[in-house]
Design a protein that fits this description.
about 5% helix, about 375 residues, mainly beta, about 55% strand
Length: about 375
């Protein structure tokens, strides 16, 4: 694999960013390919810098850290999802790696004629993450895949160079909405737990994204709605999550992100985000509701319940009003055995009493609770 040139390009990009931005905080962390013995060091309170930096640097058998990127075309016909994992299967059950291995990049691609995502699982021998300001750049050695971010979170590039499996190209993200944490803006002292035991930092709630990816001779090329965040946890994902609905989209002038999850003890945790014209109208972890609609709309969901046709989303923004949105599936692009679903689809709605809009979205559902 021709990764040395890509790694050099990453270093040059980061150094150029340092020279231009002169950020006050820089950190480098290297993950080995296997878990460590001992306790995890998950971080759940934000600081002035490091929004996209590693949040758990000692990954043991029951912890995890990952960086997630996606883009969906405005007609919902094409999508790419790329996740950089430092997560053993014992900590995050959907990452099927042997023994104590934990480094992997998973790429899902859908396009006209291939509405159900094809996917590639690319193991890595080492992962290096360089954090500068609030941004981060990472390379998963041996996978041919990495990402480069600017210190101010304005631009990210995901590069793919894995010719042995027929994947090559890039995704370029230009942010159009400010970063945030579950309950508020990207500032020091924020609680980063989106639910007990699970951390979340949303570097790019919405981004204009250019995708050009060559997949075994097929070119997937579009400009669409993009997104980037990260999750982590210092205890087993299954021990903390029974279900969740998460998604993002662009609705006319609005950028929206929603989350509604259940812990095994029945605790409901929520987060809602709305921005307009590059300014946050609300980033809250209260007064948000997401419920399935149409077929398979059983709530709460459990293992084996089929994919619902859509979602009803409400986010109370206080003085700004209440955002009410209907998400309708265009394609169920991922279905992992009744445990996990992902969709591309359309949005319709707006702030109650104000003009309505339509838009494009991508969302997911975890069903990990045993059947009643």
């Amino acid at each position: 694999m021709q990764t040395s040139g890509l790694k050099l390009a990453t270093v040059v990009f980061v150094l150029a960013s340092l020279a231009l931005a002169r950020p006050p905080w820089v950190s480098t962390h290297v993950y080995s390919s296997s878990t460590v013995n001992g306790s995890s060091d998950g971080l759940f309170t934000s600081s002035d810098y490091g929004l996209d930096a590693p949040k758990d640097k000692t990954i043991n058998a029951t912890s995890y850290d990952w960086w997630y990127f996606d883009a969906v075309s405005e007609d919902q016909q094409s999508s790419v999802v790329c996740t950089f994992l430092a997560a053993p299967g014992t900590g995050f059950p959907l990452n099927q790696l042997p023994d104590n291995a934990m480094l992997q990049v998973i790429i899902f691609v859908s396009y006209p004629g291939q509405p159900v995502s094809s996917f590639s699982m690319l193991p890595a021998t080492e992962a290096t993450v360089v954090s500068v300001g609030n941004g981060a750049s990472g390379h998963w050695e041996g996978s041919g895949v990495g990402f480069v971010g600017t210190p101010d979170l304005s631009t990210y590039v995901v590069y793919v160079d894995s010719p042995n499996i027929g994947l090559k190209g890039s995704m370029t993200f230009h942010s159009v909405a400010p970063a945030h944490y579950p309950c508020g803006p990207a500032e020091a002292g924020q609680n980063m737990a989106i639910m007990p035991g699970v951390g979340w930092a949303n570097a790019m709630p919405d981004a204009t994204t250019d995708v050009e990816l060559h997949v075994n001779g097929t070119t997937v090329k579009f400009t669409g709605v993009g997104y980037h965040d990260k999750n982590w946890g210092d205890t087993d994902f299954n021990d903390n999550v029974d279900s969740w609905y998460w998604g993002h989209g662009r609705l006319g002038p609005y950028s929206i992100v929603w989350y509604d999850g259940l812990s095994p003890n029945g605790l409901e945790s929520v987060s809602g985000y709305v921005a307009r014209d590059g300014k946050i109208l609300g980033a809250v972890c209260t007064a948000t509701t997401v419920r399935p609609t149409g077929s398979n709309s059983t709530y709460p969901p459990s293992i084996g319940v089929g994919p619902p046709a859509g979602l009803h989303i409400e986010i109370d923004l206080g003085a700004e009003g209440k955002m009410i949105v209907e998400a309708t599936s265009t394609f169920n692009i991922v279905n992992i055995g009744g445990l996990y679903y992902r969709w591309t689809g359309s949005l319709a709605g707006g702030i109650e009493g104000q003009p309505s809009f339509t838009g494009t979205a991508l969302w997911e559902e975890f069903n990990l609770a045993p059947p009643a």
